[in-house]
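Per reviewer request, we include the raw input and output of the structure prediction for the construct analysed in the revised manuscript.
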Amino acid sequence: MADLAIFDLDHTLIATDSADRWSAYMCENGMIQDTDAFLETHKKYEQSYKVGDIDMGEFIRFALKPLIGLRECDVTKKVIEFIEAFIRPHIYKKGVDVVRDHVEKGDTILLISATIEDLVNPVGKILGFKPENILAVNTEKCDERYTGNLLGTLGFGKGKVARTQAWLQQQKLAFDKTYFYSDSINDLPLLLEVDEPRVVNPDPKLLIEAKNRGWFVKYF
């Protein structure tokens, strides 16, 4: 029986925060009118995230406001341009190697992120994840236009545990061992659930936690 290797995305497999960089991209490309106010509010959310005290749903709905009413196909074109310019160059080669090592051993790989699916899905594809093995924040569209609403459970904090468990039940799969690769203290709930926590490029709080627990720590 094979293993399951679960991966976070931002700062784990890519050397940037895709949601933050996307917000900057929207400002730089005329998708937001009052960029100063938007970036100021965004910075406050970013600081809350770093200390592990953020209302992720509230933040994502804020970040989605510039897309409300836009056609999904138009946003997709911009996302493709954005990924090629600002995400692909920041993919960790060592991270890709770890993903490939698991695949070559016959393991199942799963990508889970608290970033919107519109960004995560195409990046996950580049990294070699199957579409059905990518879990991200689901965004609502009505008549192929963004509503600004979110759907389902967010893959953040304990939500990552819930999303992973739901995925396992849906797939009806069992594994010898489970791994989870992450950089963030916000992912502690899922790190505590797996057999083999793999702390990668840890933030200060997670580094302390990892040292106290004797967890594997690696830098990509």
